[in-house]
Amino acid sequence: MVDELGKIRRTHLSSSLDPSLDGQRITVMGWVTAVRVHGSITFTTIQDRHGPIQIVAKRGVCADEARSILSALKPHSSISISGEVSKSDRAPGGIEIIPHEIRVFSAVTKTPPFEPAAISIKNIDTRLESRCIDLRREPLQHIFRARSSALSAVRNYFLDNDFTEINTPKIIASATEGGAALFSIFYYDKEAFLAQSPQLYKEQLTMSFERVFEIASIFRAEPSRTNRHLAEAISIDLEEAFVDYNDIMERVADIVMVAADAVRQYTGFKFEPPNTDSIPQYTYQELSERIKDAGSNMEWGDDLHPSWLRKIRLEGLYFIKDWPMGPKPFYVKTNAENPDISESFDLMYNDLELSSGSTRIQDRHTLKSNMQKKGMNVDSFEPHLNAFEYGMPPHAGCGIGLERLMMALTNTENIRDAVFYPRDVDRLGP
Ligand code: AMO
User: Fold this and answer.
1) CB < 8 Å & 24+ apart, contacts of 11-16
2) Which of 192, 196, 349, 427 could form a disulfide with 187 if both were Cys (CB 3.0 to 4.6 A apart)?
3) Burial tier of 241 (Cβ tally within 10 Å: 0-12, 13-18, 19+)
């Protein structure tokens, strides 16, 4: 039998219950996390969005019907309890509830795949298969509440600094990021793709808004099975007119700081952001020499493999800048003094890339010749190239992987735990 909500409403959350309410009649709602029957007493713990509440049903003190309903409940059932507050030194928050009326909105009959209060569960797939209840567990509640705070702080940072929030199409006609694979889809009678990044649109929008940001999904057909790659990730993208990559490095440092401050209010997350001025900057050249000196077999132009970065003991936050031009996407600007080097950077945390950005090319002809050199179909970019006929400002920007940022700020090992419903090479559900 399922009870309806009807007109009954919660009067208190767990966080608003305290011993001063002793003797008052209240209504609480939430999910059952544990039921223990000790002879004539049934202890039930429920959890609401702020924390636990203990219900104590003792024969002779509360109605037998309430006690028998509680005794039969399985973890995760969703219920409401109307009852009386009673002071108790041993209960969470110093109070327990003596139940008078129970409503069972949804009685669980299945045995859950893991205990509601489990702190760690070995196989992540077991959790992901039942993600809706996995997300009720405390460690994940902390990560996702921290994520929500970080997002709100970052958004406020942008708005305070005169950035305009944008939304760009996620169904696009051609690739923007060479190197990263595309998902193709049917678009009416044509082939289209899911956007790998908002790159070209955010660049165009600097022509009208100067400073823009977008927080949205990016799609990468990543073939890699790692703890840091998703097929769908959230990117915090920004783009700014009349600046170069050095200015953007300062912005990213500010943004990481703002996000870290927001996350720090959650106990257990000990990330200490460095002072903005002190995020070290290394050139690609410098690091490639150190990597070779450490005995690794790397060639100039190679990506810097995480294992090489670990070998030369790079830790915490640092920038790698002035990457070789060769592997960089077509829109990245060349260093004025050395055509082999780009005006670009990656922000790293240990061996994890959190962000990458660059100064962009603002000249149509250079952009077109870069596309040709990379063997791209220039015709399909004609609408984008046309924008460069009408006063494209010098501009620069970057994309920050939200999940990777949260991994760094909350010390989370697997990127799948920084996304509600992960998508990867093996997972398309739930
Ligand atoms: P890039 O391809 O380096 O740059 O992506 C920017 C940031 O997005 C995150 N990221 C990912 N996170 C999880 N899974 C993935 N598969 C994945 N791919 C990328 C990373 C990365 O640093 N247009 C440029 C950005 C710019 O120059 O503005 C771009 O897309 O944290």
Assistant:
1) 13/48, 13/49, 13/50, 14/47, 14/48, 14/50, 14/51, 14/52, 14/53, 14/92, 14/93, 15/50, 15/51
2) 192
3) buried
Residue ranges lining ligand 1, Cβ < 6 Å: 177, 180, 197, 199, 220, 222, 229-230, 233, 235, 237, 353-358, 397-399, 401, 403-404
CA of 372 to the centre of ligand 1 (A): 24
Residue whose structure tokens are 């705070």: 149
Q: Which residues contact 5 (CB under 8 A, 6 or more apart)?
A: 80, 103, 105
Dump the DSSP string for 178-246.
TTS---EEEETTEEEEE-S-SHHHHHHHHHHHSEEEEEEEEE------SSS--SEEEEEEEEEET--HH
pLDDT (tens digit per residue) in 72-118: 999 999 999 999 999 999 888 899 999 999 999 999 998 889 988 88
User: Both tokens of residue 292?
Assistant: 């070779």
CA distances from 398 to 61, 157, 175, 388, 395 (A): 63, 16, 17, 20, 11
Instruction: Give CA–CA dist 44/53, Å, rounded.
Output: 8
User: Quick check: 199 and 176 in contact, CB under 8 A?
Assistant: yes
Answer yes or no: are the C-beta atoms of 239 and 212 closer than 8 Å.
yes
The rounded distance, in Å, linking the Cα atoms of 185 and 19 is 59
Q: Which of 206, 218, 344 most suits a substitution to test ligand 1, by most atoms within 8 Å of the C-beta?
A: 218
Handedness of CA 238, 177, 150, 264 (dihedral sign): negative
Predicted model pTM:
0.96
**pLDDT tens-digit profile of 331-355?**
999 999 999 999 999 999 999 999 9
